[in-house]
Specification:
Layout (H helix, E strand, L loop, with lengths): L8 H10 L9 E8 L8 E7 L7 E8 L4 E7 L5 E8 L8 H4 E8 L4 E5 L7 E3 L2 H33 L2 H4 L2 H28 L4 H9 L10 H7 L3 H4 L2 H12 L13 E3 L5 E3 L8 E6 L4 H5 L1 H11 L5 E6 L6 H11 L5 E3 L8 H5 L7 E5 L5 E4 L4 H11 L1
Parallel strand pairs: 1-7, 11-12, 12-13
Antiparallel strand pairs: 1-4, 2-3, 2-5, 5-6, 7-8, 9-10, 11-14, 14-15
Helix pairs in contact: 3-5, 5-6, 11-14
Length: 395
């Protein structure tokens, strides 16, 4: 990150004098940005605001023009504070890579007016007048060494993947190896997350980090509940705090050996299918969406397991979190992935799908293995781990 001294002092003083630090109502937000210079081909800034911190789904995306190096966003938030992202696209020229065309600045927005200063790229911008973003900067500095190591691992994995023949890419062994790379990254990150949460129990960033501990490669971590209890009362009693407490209270009801909640949802033809109709057989309840790359990467493993064990009584019920506008895309994805042999269901409500709410789905892919008596016996069996579990059951 560039030192603040790289900014012309007169430029800083002028911007701060022009920026209005007026009090906004609880749900209003304001972002004012200044570029010292604007790269050729960039004339707009885009803003995506996410719905909640627990289910990080885009709530809306807006855009605004850059005029004389300045841009402004104003509006109302569904909840405050919330995660957001500013980004720009440069007009494509020649063989320019996506990374060279695209720059982004993740941030949090709340009722405090935000001032953002950048040289020429959002990727190296600075956010001011916002406690939550200063806390995020403190966290990022703690994470910088580990993040660099993790990014190197992923970059090397992607480079290796592109060089391998398709037969190796699709193998169980390589998929297991790839998953373990991400587990190793999470294993390196988690101690720093936990240390930050304990050090700053009154920071919104600490609460949001507890949320993220629900979405690691290890699944929900037991320490998340203990760290949540360590947070300040004001955070625990906030809207997000109460939401997370509700989630924690639901975990035992969806734990191993608990009864899988029933639902009835239409399939691709409109026929309503209930989970109870699969009683007497093992069934994998799988949550996915046509737009979810990691979900669709699971399709070959699901297909392999289904073909191998279906005659023994194994079934799959796939629940899509696509919405009505994506209905055709959902059906096309089923054809493209060759997953039409088993029940494909969707009520077109997205993340508010009846089944997703029953199973408290906050990230995908996600799955539950249910036994013939309707009890949950395993969760999140990705890649070759599904077939390994089925071998254990049917041997």
């Amino acid at each position: 990150m560039k030192n603040i001294k790289s900014y012309n002092l007169r430029f800083l003083l002028t911007v701060f004098s022009l920026f209005a630090f007026s009090c906004l109502s609880a749900q209003d937000f304001s972002i004012e940005g200044h570029f010292r210079s604007v790269q050729k081909g960039i004339n707009k800034v885009y803003l995506t605001v996410y719905s909640t911190a627990l289910a990080r789904n885009p709530q809306f995306t807006d855009s605004t023009a850059i005029i004389d190096g300045k841009f402004t966003f104003k509006g109302k938030l569904p909840l405050s504070p919330t995660e957001a992202k500013l980004f720009t696209f440069k007009d494509k020229q020649g063989d320019m890579s996506f990374g060279e065309r695209y720059a982004e600045r993740p941030l949090y927005i709340d009722s405090q007016p935000i001032l953002l200063l950048a040289d020429s790229s959002l990727a190296e911008s600075h956010v001011y007048n916002s406690r939550i973003n200063f806390d995020q900067l403190l966290f990022e500095r703690r994470m910088s060494t580990v993040d660099s190591l993790c990014n190197e691992r992923v970059t090397a994995l992607n480079k290796e993947f592109r060089s391998l023949p398709d037969s190796i890419r699709r193998s169980d062994e390589y998929h297991r190896y790839s998953l373990n790379i991400f587990k190793e990254n999470d294993r390196n990150k988690l101690p720093i997350w936990e240390s930050f949460i304990r050090s700053y129990p009154d920071s919104w960033i600490s609460l949001f980090l507890v949320f993220r501990m629900n979405n690691t490669s290890f699944g929900m971590l037991p320490s998340a509940a203990l760290l949540f209890e360590n947070l300040s009362d004001s955070l625990k009693n906030s809207h997000y705090g109460r939401e997370f407490k509700t989630y924690l209270d639901k975990i035992p009801a969806l734990g191993i050996d608990s009864e899988a909640p029933n639902f009835s949802i239409p399939d691709t033809s409109g026929k309503v299918i209930s989970l109870e109709s699969f009683r007497g057989h093992y069934v994998l309840l799988e949550f996915w969406a046509s737009w979810c790359g990691p979900c669709r990467a699971e399709s070959p493993f699901l297909t392999k397991a289904y073909k191998k064990y279906h005659e023994s009584g194994f079934n799959i019920v796939s629940i899509s979190l696509d919405t009505r506008k994506d209905e055709q895309r959902w059906k096309q994805a089923i054809i493209e992935d060759g997953t039409g042999s088993w029940a494909q269901l969707a009520d077109m409500k997205g993340w508010k799908s009846d089944a997703a709410l029953l199973y408290d789905i906050r990230s995908i892919p996600a799955n539950f293995l249910i036994d013939p008596d309707g009890k949950i016996v395993a969760k999140d069996l990705r890649g070759p781990y599904l077939e390994e579990k089925l071998e254990e059951i049917y041997r």
